[in-house]
Amino acid sequence: MSHHIVEFKNVSFRYPDGTDALRDISFRITHGEAVGIIGANGAGKSTLLLHMNGSLMPTSGTVNIGDLYLTRQTRQEIRRKVGIVFQNPDDQLFMPTVYEDVAFGPLNLGMDEAAVRERVEVALSRVNSLELRHKPPHYLSCGKKSAVAIASVMAVEPDILAMDEPAANLDPKSRRLLINMLKTFAHTKIIASHDLDLILDVCHRCIVIREGMIVADGPSKEILSNQALLEENNLELPLSHQRD
Amino acid sequence: MSHHIVEFKNVSFRYPDGTDALRDISFRITHGEAVGIIGANGAGKSTLLLHMNGSLMPTSGTVNIGDLYLTRQTRQEIRRKVGIVFQNPDDQLFMPTVYEDVAFGPLNLGMDEAAVRERVEVALSRVNSLELRHKPPHYLSCGKKSAVAIASVMAVEPDILAMDEPAANLDPKSRRLLINMLKTFAHTKIIASHDLDLILDVCHRCIVIREGMIVADGPSKEILSNQALLEENNLELPLSHQRD
Amino acid sequence: MTFDKEYYNIGLLDRLSYQNTFVHRLDPRIKLIATLLYLFTVISFSKYEVVELFPFFLYPVLLITLGEIPLLFIIKKVVLVSPFAIFVGIFNPFLDTGRVVLMQELTISAGWISFFSILVKFTLTVSTALLLVTTTSFPGVCHALRQLGVPSLFVSQLLFLYRYIFVLMEETMRIVRARDMRSYGRRGTGIRIFVRLVGILFLRTVERAERIYYAMLSRGFQGDMPTLKRFRITASDLGFAAFVIAFLFIFRFYPVSEELGRFVQGVF
Amino acid sequence: MHMADALLSPTVGATMWACSMAAIGYSSKQLKKNIDNKTIPLMGVLGAFIFAAMMINFTIPGTGSSGHMGGGMILAVILGPYAAFLVMASVLIVQALFFADGGLLALGCNIWNLGIYPCFLAYPLIYNPIAGDGTSNRRIAIASIVSVLIALQLGACSVVMETLLSRKSELPFGTFVLLMQPIHLAIGLVEGFVTSGIITYVKKARPEILQSSSAYRPLDASISVKNVLVAFVIMAVITGGALSWFASTHPDGLEWSIEKVTGKAELAGQEQGIAHALKGIQGKTAFLPDYNFKPSVQEESKEKKSPVWPAIDAGTSVAGIVGGGIVLGLVLLIGFGIRFFKRKTEP
Ligand SMILES: Nc1ncnc2c1ncn2[C@@H]1O[C@H](COP(=O)(O)OP(=O)(O)OP(=O)(O)O)[C@@H](O)[C@H]1O
Ligand SMILES: Nc1ncnc2c1ncn2[C@@H]1O[C@H](COP(=O)(O)OP(=O)(O)OP(=O)(O)O)[C@@H](O)[C@H]1O
Ligand SMILES: [Mg+2]
Ligand SMILES: [Mg+2]
Fold first, then answer.
1. Tens digits of per-residue pLDDT, A1-15?
2. From A17, which residue of chain D is nearest by alpha-carbon distance?
3. Domain-by-domain residue ranges, chain B?
4. Helix (H/G/I), strand (E/B), else coil: B95
C-alpha cells in the first residue's frame, strides 16, 4: 500500500528566529515500519515530527504522505492519516474531560455522536482507560495521561502514528506497559526518543540526526550497537547492552 | 559530623485537598551517604524531598537536619544546609544570565561581591559550564540547563544535596556526564528518580516508597535486584541488569 | 505558603464539583439560572431588611447537605473574602444614626441594621456562588453558558482557561518554591525578581500555547471547537426549578419571619 | 478592588450586567471576523497565566490585600483589545466562581471596571500613542505606568459610583473616593512597573511574540482614536440613560448620592418604580392582606431624617427578631435533619 508511506525529500526548516533546525533531510518510511528517531538534545527530532502533518511547513523540500504532497491545501487530509503524540501529555489533553478530549478528533472529522462515542470507547479501551472517561485530565497520574493522550490520537484511526518522547517521566512499569501497547499496534510508527532501550524494543529501524542532518539510517540492531557512532551523537549503548 | 544528618521521624503529610501523600515516614541518613528514593508515579517522592528544606511542613512528625528541628523559624537556616534541585531546570533558572542566577543564592546570603564571584566560578567550573556564564539560561540546551541548575544550588555550598529526577529529558551523553558529576560530590546526596540505572550507579542505599509509606530501605544492590519487591512497586530491574 | 493554600483551595473546590449527588446531577443550566435568580432576589431587599433575609439561608443549607459539601470549607471561604464588604459597610453604623426601637427601651442606630443586612446578604450571595461551582463542574457551567447563548468563542477559551489553570499553577508553584528556596527569608521576593518570574512564566505560557495549538491541529482542528450535546432536562430538574421559583416567590413577598414571630407571641 | 454582590442594588447590577454582556458579545463578534486559529488556545492559556501570576506572593507596600494584578494591559498589548477584553472577562468569571471574589451579579460591574477601561480606553488612547512603535524601553515604561494608572483609577472610581448608586453603603462620596483612589494609585504604580517589565522582557527574549501580535494590529488600527471616542460617547449616553431611568424609578439612588455630595436634600415622590410595582404585585396576592410593604416605608422615614426609625412599633420589631430566630433555627434543623437521615440511610 503506497498509502502509508512517509517520504521526506531534501527538507530544510528554519525557525523564524533564524535557527536552522532541519537541513536537507531525506528518507522514506514504508507501510508498517517502526522507525526510531534519535539524536542529542536540540538535534531536531521534535521539529522533524512536526513536519509530518504540516504543523510546521518545510522552508524548502517536499514531504509526501501516501499519495499526497504536503501543502496548505492537503494538510487537513494528511492530518487524518498521521497522528502525532507530543512529548508533554498536558499540552495534548486540552479539553476539560477525558471523554471530550478523545472525542475532539472524531468530532472534527464530522462524525455523528453515536459513531464518535463508539470511537472514543474503542480507543480508551485499547489503552485500558475506559473508566477514566468522565474525569478531568488534571486528576490523572502521569502514566494515565500518556495513555489517554495516545488514545486521543488513536481515536482518529490514523494510518501513521508519530510519537515524541512517549516514556519520559513514566515509572518503569508504566513504561513497560506502554512498550507492550506500542508493540501491538499494526500502524506505521515513528518514535523520537532518548530512551534507546525503548527504541530497540519497538523499532526495527533507526534514524540518527545531528544538528538537523541525518547522519545514519539503518537497522536498529546495527546502529544501536555502533558505539562510535552513538558517542559522536551524544548517545550511548542502550542500557540493557551495557555491562558493568 | 552530626551536621549532615537528615532524620525523619514519623512524618506524615496531607495536602490541603485531603491527599495523604506521606504516612508515618521514618529514616535517618548520615553524613556522606548517597541515597536513592524510588517508587511508582505518585508514590510521594517529590513530596518527601520538599520536606527536606521546609518547602512543605509535615502535618505530623518531625524532620531533623543536623542539630536543627525543622520549624518555620529554622526553615531559613535549614535552606542553607539543604539544597534541592527540582525536576525541571526551567523552573529554577529565573535570572537574566547564568551568572546572575548562580549568584542569586550567595547574594541573598549577604555575601560580598568578591566572595560571590568566587563561589559562582567554583560552582560553574564544577559542572563544566564556566564558559556559559554570560548567556541567558533560556537559550541553553537541556543538558546545560540541568548543569547550571545544579551549580546554582551548589553555589550556596549546602551540606546536603537533594535532587528530584535529575536526568529526565537528558540525552544519554548528558545523563552520563551528570552521573559522573554526581559521583565526584562528597556531599550527602538524596536522589529521587525512576532511572534505576542512575540510582544503582550513584547511590549505595535505596529507599522504596509506596503510597506514602516506606516499604523497603537497604543497600541498592540488594533492593535493585529483588525482582519481586520491585514489581510490587511498579518498578523493574535496572535495564543494565536485564538481558533479552 | 499563601500560594500553596490558594492553589489547594481551587483544587478542593474543583474536586467537590465532580461528586455524584442529587444536586450534582441536576442540569447545569437550571442550577445557573436558579443561582442568578436567587442572588437577584436576595439583593433586591432594601438595606434595612434583615430578618426577612433569614429564610433564604434554607437554599444554601439544602445545597450543602444534599450536595455533601463541607460546611466549614464554605464558611472559611466566606470569611476569607469578607474584608471589602466589611470595609464598605462598617461606616454605616456611624453615618446613619437614625434610632431604631428594638424593644421597649432598647434602641440602636439604623446603620447597624443596614450593616448587618450587608453582612447577611454577603454571606448568602458568596456562599451560593461557591455552592454553584462546588455542585456543578466548571465545564458544566461553561456548556450551560454556551447553550444559554454566550458566544462559543468566548466559552471555548474559558474552557481552555479552566483546563490550564491547574497546569500553570503547578508550574508557578514550582518556580515560586525555587525562588523561596534560595532567598533565605531575605525577600528575594522583591518586585524585580517578581517581574522576572512573571516574564519567564509568560514566555513559557506562550510556548505552551504553541504546543497546544500543534496538538489541536494534529487532531483536525480547523477553527471551530466541536461540542457534544449532552444535557437533557429530567423530571428532577423540573422539580428543582419549580421548588426554587416557589421558594423565592414566597420568601420574597411574604414576611415569614415576622408572621412567625407574631404567631409565637400570640401563643404565649 | 472587586465589587461585591452584597453592596449592589438590583438595578445597578442588572445595568452593568447588560453592558458587560453586550461588550462580550460585540468583542466576540469582532474577534471572530479576524481571528487566527491560534488565538483561541493562546487566549485561554494566557488567562490561566494571568491567574497564576496573580498568585505569586510579593507584597505591595501599604496594602495587605493581594492587590489584583489586573493584567489587562499586558493582554491588550499581546492580544489586541478585543481578545484581551474577553480574556479579562473570563479571568473575572473564574475569580468570581472559584474565589468568590466579587460575586456573580457584581460580575457585570467587575468586567466593566477591570476589563473595559484597560482594553478599550487606556490601551488605544494612552498606551499606544505613548509607546509608539515599541522600540524604546523608556516609552514602553512610561506608557505602561500611565495607562495602567489611569485604567485603575477609572475602575476604582466606578466601584465608588456603583456602590453609591446602589445605596447600600452610607459612605459619603468624598470619603469613599479618598479611601479608594490612593490605594489604587499604589497598586497602579506597581502594576504599571510590572507590566512594563514584562513587556520589555518579552521584547528582549522573544521579540517575534510582540511582532506576531502586531499581526493583530489591523484590529488596533481599526480602533482609531475617533472611533473609540465615539463609542465611549455612545456608551456614556446609554449608561447615563439607564442610570437616569433607574434614578427616576428608584428615586433614592442617584439623588441620595447627590444629596450626600452637595449636602442638599432634594426629595422626589416615593410611590414609584420598583417599590410601587412590587406593591402592586403584593396587592394582588390576596393571602398577604395586611402586610405593610417595608422598603418604601423605611426609606421614606429615612429620607425625612426622622430621628426615630422606623415607623413600625416595637411590637413589630420584636416579632421580626423572634421570628427571624425561629426561622434560622428551623433552617439549621432541616440541614442537620437531612444530614442525619442521609447518614442513616447510607451506612
Ligand atoms: N520555537 C522555536 N523557535 C526557535 N528555535 C527553536 C524552536 N524550537 C526549537 N528550536 C531550536 O531548533 C533546534 C531543534 O530543536 P528540537 O526541539 O527539534 O530538538 P529535539 O531534538 O527535539 O531536542 P530534545 O531532545 O531536547 O527534545 C534546537 O536548536 C532548538 O533550540
Ligand atoms: N499539589 C498537590 N495537591 C494535591 N495532591 C498532590 C499534589 N502534589 C502531589 N499530590 C499527590 O500526592 C501524591 C504524591 O505525589 P508526588 O508528586 O510526591 O509523587 P512522586 O512520587 O513524586 O510521583 P512522580 O514519580 O510522578 O513524580 C500523589 O498521589 C499526588 O497525586
Ligand atoms: Mg524534542
Ligand atoms: Mg515527582
1. 456 789 999 999 998
2. D208
3. 2-237
4. coil
